[in-house]
């Protein structure tokens, strides 16, 4: 295979000596396995989504993916045992940029993206953290600056780019080209990544009925395929009889570093064929036994081992009721989501689901009273008639979810997000919803009696015929809200709220829109955003003693101030997104 470079050379031709990445220390076995697992996961994604046609392992870089159109993606796999996120000051990052830069100089016109695949994400400053002292060290910020056609507005960013350029020994223009193409892939943690192969294989066609033991066996076969390509694992006779390049390197050594997606699919097909043959042989064997009693005993003994991955995942989810969160809960939820399996009427009363991702699940009629769910995400899930009353749900998210007839009575839900949800006839009696977002949601005939909606966002929200008896609306933004037929609404309540004068709420003729404007300029708008974020921080820290960092909980002790590993960065998405 050959792809022409900017200088007329080729990036993957067989006329060059094979290169071995110097980034993976042989003595750190876990880091080596992490890279191999990443290679298998990329193969699984290529099989499922058709993203690549082949991969090269330890050839020019850790992993090189070749797309069907001939474009190339370059992957550097990095692991980090400590909590701090990647910045431009990390030596490993500078080394990666240096390697990417050398490839960009030679082969830039063929390279689509550069990826850093890691268990630790990059540092991203908050949009409102304009005075963040570390902002100039953020690779994401530097990437955005490199993508901008405007001159750098602050000298500190140019100085940082020049510092990286000098450390990486790259021209500044090449460094900017690399940053424009740079992306990050957040992999599993160092404690969980070994189970990630089975979870990904489960989502592939024809593999969702395999028991977990079989999925692990298949994963080991694919892992061996990648590890063989990552090393010089070629029989001596093949090397001795291989055609030599002009430099005298056996071409067979270079060819061994390539694994096509078709090869990986072939490994899966062969495995499935063997499994089918084994099953057929067992069936024939059973038919040879006349006694039905023996068949019944055999089934009884075989059943636990034949339990499918999906069945096990459902059992794990059900076991979370009124108990500590099972270690494999997140993986089990992912399996159920991939299979689109319904959890209708699941009982999760008093479960501990803090920071968990429960998005895109069928949870209608779920019972989850007294749920400990601070930071939980139900994005685009079906929560029809679900009962989440008397629960801790601060900073939870229901974006685009179906929440019709759901019950949240008496729950704490500071800084929650119901934007674009369908929440008709839902009940929030006595619920704390301070600083929450209900934008563009449908709350027709919902019951907010005695609820606290102060400082909430209700722009373009449908509240027609809803109950707002004794509801707090202080500083709530009612711009464009439909409040026709609202029960219990008073002019006094409206006067404590605010709205955009160009887009007042739709009210019955007896009422007048709020006189107060929520914000008049960008500065006052930013102050409102910051105040809401503070509410979210208090909502998480007060309940958890820490905060949600994606799907993971990070504890922050009271004396953590000043220690970077315990500080709560403003980049934490307190308002969860898809």
How far is it from the N-terminal to the C-terminal residue, by CA?
39 Å
Mean pLDDT across all residues, rounded? 82
Strand order of the largest sheet: 5-4-3-2-1-6
DSSP helical segment count: 15
Spell out the helices and strands N to C: HEEEHEHHHEHHHHEHHHHHHEE
Radius of gyration: 28 Å
**Helical percent range?**
25-40%
Shape: globular
Structural class: alpha/beta
Query: How is the main sheet built?
Result: 6 strands, mixed
What portion of residues belong to β-strands? Answer: 5-15%
Kindly state the number of beta strands.
Answer: 8
Which residue ranges are poorly predicted, with pLDDT under 50 across at least 5 consecutive positions? 14-27, 236-242, 562-578
Descriptive report:
By secondary structure, this protein is α/β, with parallel strands linked by helices. The protein has a domain at 29-262. It contains 15 helices and 8 strands. It has helices at 29-49, 91-107, 139-147, 155-168, 172-181, 196-202, 212-230, 236-241, 251-255, 261-287, 292-306, 309-318, 329-339, 491-496, 522-544, and strands spanning 54-59, 61-66, 72-78, 111-118, 182-186, 258-260, 546-549, 552-555. Helix 1 (29-49) packs across helix 10 (261-287) and helix 2 crosses helix 4. The two termini are 39 Å apart. The model is unreliable at 14-27, 236-242 and 562-578 (pLDDT under 50).
């Amino acid at each position: 295979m050959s792809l022409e470079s900017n200088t007329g050379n080729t990036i993957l031709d067989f006329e060059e000596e094979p290169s071995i990445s110097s980034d993976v220390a042989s003595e750190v076995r876990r880091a080596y396995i992490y890279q191999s697992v990443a290679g298998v996961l990329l193969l699984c994604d290529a099989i499922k989504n058709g993203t690549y046609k082949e991969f090269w392992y330890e050839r020019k870089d850790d992993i090189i993916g070749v797309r069907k159109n001939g474009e190339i993606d370059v992957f550097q796999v990095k692991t980090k045992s400590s909590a701090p996120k990647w910045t431009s000051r990390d030596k490993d990052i500078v080394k990666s940029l240096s390697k990417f830069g050398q490839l960009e100089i030679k082969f830039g016109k063929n390279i689509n993206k550069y990826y850093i695949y890691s268990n630790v994400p990059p540092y991203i400053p908050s949009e409102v953290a304009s005075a963040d002292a570390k902002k100039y060290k953020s690779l994401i910020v530097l990437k955005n600056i490199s993508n901008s056609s405007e001159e750098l507005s602050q000298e500190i960013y140019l100085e940082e780019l020049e510092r990286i350029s000098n450390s990486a020994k790259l021209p500044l223009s090449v460094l900017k080209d690399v940053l424009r193409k740079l992306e990050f892939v957040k992999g599993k943690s160092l404690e969980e990544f070994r189970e990630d192969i089975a979870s990904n294989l489960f989502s592939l066609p024809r593999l969702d009925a395999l028991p977990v033991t079989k999925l692990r066996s298949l994963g080991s076969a694919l892992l061996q395929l990648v590890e063989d390509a990552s090393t010089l694992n070629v029989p001596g006779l093949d090397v001795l009889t291989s055609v030599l390049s002009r430099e005298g390197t056996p071409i067979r050594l270079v060819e061994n570093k390539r694994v096509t997606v078709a090869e990986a699919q072939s490994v899966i097909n062969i495995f499935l064929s063997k499994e089918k043959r084994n099953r057929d042989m067992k069936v024939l064997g059973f038919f040879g036994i006349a006694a039905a009693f023996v068949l019944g005993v055999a089934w009884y003994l075989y059943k636990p081992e034949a339990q499918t991955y999906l069945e096990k995942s459902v059992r794990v989810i059900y076991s979370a009721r009124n108990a500590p969160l099972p270690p494999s809960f997140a993986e089990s939820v992912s399996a159920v989501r991939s299979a689109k399996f319904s959890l209708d009427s699941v009982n999760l009363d008093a479960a501990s689901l803090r920071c968990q991702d429960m998005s895109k699940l069928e949870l209608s009629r779920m019972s989850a009273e007294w749920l400990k769910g601070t930071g939980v995400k139900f994005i685009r899930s079906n929560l029809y008639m679900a009962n989440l009353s008397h629960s801790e749900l601060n900073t939870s998210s229901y974006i685009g979810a179906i929440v019709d007839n759901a019950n949240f009575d008496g729950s704490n839900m500071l800084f929650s997000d119901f934007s674009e949800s369908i929440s008709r006839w839902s009940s929030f009696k006595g619920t704390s919803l301070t600083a929450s977002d209900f934008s563009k949601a449908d709350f027709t005939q919902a019951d907010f009696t005695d609820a606290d909606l102060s400082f909430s966002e209700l722009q373009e929200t449908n509240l027609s015929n809803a109950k707002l008896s004794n509801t707090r609306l202080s500083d709530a933004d009612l711009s464009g809200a439909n409040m026709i037929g609202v029960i219990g609404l008073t002019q006094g309540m409206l006067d404590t709220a605010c709205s955009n004068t160009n887009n007042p709420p739709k009210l019955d003729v007896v009422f007048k829109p709020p006189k107060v404007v929520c914000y008049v300029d960008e500065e006052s708008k930013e102050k409102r955003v910051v105040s809401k974020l503070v509410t979210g921080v208090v909502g998480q820290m007060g309940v958890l003693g820490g905060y949600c960092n994606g799907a993971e909980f990070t504890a922050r002790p009271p004396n953590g101030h000043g220690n970077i590993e315990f500080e709560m960065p403003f980049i934490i998405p307190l308002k969860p997104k898809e």
